[in-house]
TrEMBL record:
CDD domains: USP-like
Name listed for the protein in its UniProt record: Universal stress protein
UspA domain sequence ranges: 1-139
Membership in a protein family: Belongs to the universal stress protein A family.
Domain of life per record: Bacteria
Alphabetized PANTHER family for the sequence: STRESS RESPONSE PROTEIN NHAX, UNIVERSAL STRESS PROTEIN UP12
Any matching Pfam family: Usp
SUPFAM superfamilies registered for this protein in UniProt: Adenine nucleotide alpha hydrolases-like (SSF52402)
Xref: Gene3D superfamilies: HUPs
């Protein structure tokens, strides 16, 4: 049974589907706790700051990207936290997940940055190779 479930999210349709699957798995355990992690790479951070000068607005916009996932979690009434981490998504999520000793990592097969995926390899692949916990990749 999974007690600590990490949902890697970026606001894409794939990350919403992975949150739905994680919730389905977590429903089997009333003590399941969820962590939604959103990795902010250098390019995203620069773009956010250029478009919105105020850090408060930047943080609100980032949270809005995750709103569909947060709404799902709240509708189910589960225990959850949202974490924003900085760094290249693959390695940053791996480090975060390994430090958190999660029982399951759930990640979408694709995200918002298709160009980076094509050139550097998918974030989900990097996570699956390096995280110590089981990883579920949701299509």
């Amino acid at each position: 049974m999974f007690n600590k479930i990490l949902i890697a999210a970026d606001g894409s349709d794939h990350s919403i589907r992975c949150a739905e699957k994680a919730l389905h798995l977590g429903e089997q355990n009333p003590q399941a706790r969820f962590t939604v992690v959103y990795a902010i790479d250098g390019q995203t951070s620069k773009e956010d700051i250029l478009h919105h000068y105020d850090k408060t607005i930047v943080n609100e916009k980032r949270r809005q990207r995750l709103e569909p996932i947060i709404n799902l979690l709240e509708q189910k009434g589960v225990t959850y936290v949202v974490e924003f981490i900085h760094g290249e998504p693959g390695p940053a999520i791996v480090e975060f997940a390994n430090k958190g000793e999660y029982d399951l990592i759930v990640v979408g097969s694709r995200g918002l940055n298709a160009l980076q995926e094509m050139v550097l390899g998918s974030v989900s692949h990097k996570i699956a190779k390096r995280v110590l916990a089981p990883v579920m990749i949701v299509k």
